[in-house]
Amino acid sequence: MRHPARLLALVLAAWSPSSVNGTVCPTGTATPQNFAANFDLSLSPFYHGGGQRWRWNMGSTSSSSTGPVSGRSGSGGYAYTEASSPNYPAFTFILQADCPTLGVGGVHFYYSMYGYDMGNLDLEISTTNGASWTSVWSRSGNQGFGWHSAAVSVNAASATNVRFFGTTGYGYTSDIAIDDVTVATYSSTGGTCVKCPAGSYADVSLAFCVTCPAGSYSKSSGASSCTACAVGKYEASLGSTTACSDSCPPGKTSEAGATSSSDCGCAIGTYDYYGTCYKCASEKTTISIGADDVDECVCKVGYYAPYSFGTYCRRCPSGKSTTSAGSLYSSSCTECDKGHYVSGVEDDWFNGGGLTCAACSPGSYQPDVSNSVNQTSCKLCKAGRFASKSGSATCAPCDSAGEPGASYCGPNAGFIVLYVFLAIIGIAGICAAALFAEKKRQRQVAPEAAAGGLSTSFNRGVTPSLASVASLFGGGLSGRNRAGPDAGGLGPRPRPPPPRGIALVPTCGVAPSVFTRVQPQVVPQVVPQVVPQVVPQAEPQTIAVDAVFVNDGPPAAQAVPAGGDEGVVVIQAGDVIVV
Q1: C-beta separation of 528 from 444 below 8 A
Q2: Could you tell me the residue ranges of all domains in the chain?
Q3: 247 backbone dihedrals φ, ψ, rounded to 5°
Q4: Secondary structure (3-state) at 411
Q5: Architecture of 13-234 per CATH?
Q6: Mind listing the pLDDT tens digit for each residue in 101-158?
């Protein structure tokens, strides 16, 4: 080849958008569509043009190891050549269509040429109403399994007809198929850009309008692409102008872009059992929508079956994961789990190291399962987001902007003001309650002081000597609280019922308290006080006290506890006691 660069430039020019009608159209516009055929229901507008007849079919062809297994969209029909005996070798099949509008700018279609004995397929144009034909595109031999796309720039201003010319090979494995054909109109003005109508889109590579395939739609004109049906919806026809209105049955769903109800099934992670979808075990899932048996539940990503096709799944070691669901061996745990990254040096056996999975530090995250190729570090949380724990797969939003890589979020200014305000209110409430309690206490103490009531002062932790104990009741009792004339008492005293006052009993292991009785005095102060300078006239007697009873009854009603009266003193109202 003498000028390969020039030939390459010509090829690129032939396939550029401007080569169709010599114009480049703005987004959403293209040269008008001449006609289209999706073959979902019939071969129309194509018809038999000679030789053997092309057949309309759904699903697989009648022969194995050749032809497609379904229409290009996964369902629907298509046109094909049946190469089974006696239709080989070199039998011809012609499928022809007339152009409603004179001139062909380009042709777009899908084809299948799978089979060991595959023959030839040609796209031909006629400018003489079928009297003569010119090939504008050709393929031969096995092209592999599946559907392939073809975009052909024609630029035939006077084209009247289009046809597909198929030839079988040397055996039955040469079934040829075509689907979803779109033919654009040629403009004599060198290319007129129009908005593609609803139900179609402007193909950038062809610069003409292409009908939306099954499983998609475009509601308005000027679309640059068609919208796939939402999950759980489907559309069987080509060129739909409404959002896919057909829905899967209750409890079922579908992938986006579904073309029929046969695409509906149980959601991923569930399986069908007599028409009802049931969930797989918690550590299991399904590979795709539409599982119809519990055996299709396999181990989730990050789990493996320790025994082939076992009934349970085992979690990969900490920080590790598998590349896909359905792993059967622990050796499949080669990836780092979400929230982790690859650390270390690959094959670092000399230093006892190698690749390990390390947890992301607080303030960073890793949303993907990673390996040594694509994830060797974690991502910092963006401003306004944070990750407080190690091994985070996501970052949570803050209530303020914050800084990138934050491990926590503090309250914003509004919350700080609120906290301070509530603290002030709380402190003021505590102070008010304390002041109220103090006033209430003073009101209760005042009457007792006016009546010469009881005042007691406790001095804990001090063990007084016996000499510091004064006599009680003006010498009316000796150190043993005996009654009788010699003791200056009032005679025998009966045991009263349990006192209604306060009993002060020393705690076990604590030295007994020491009490001193003085003569009752009228204290003019509001709060009763014991003036240490006042010394009673009578010489105080000192005794050890085991128990003290405060009694506001008559003098005769003095309590003596069971077990004896030794060391027991009964105090009457008006007595002043210093402890």
Answers
A1: no
A2: 13-234, 447-529+536-579
A3: -115, 155
A4: coil
A5: Sandwich (2.60)
A6: 888 888 889 999 999 999 999 999 999 999 999 999 999 999 999 899 888 888 888 8
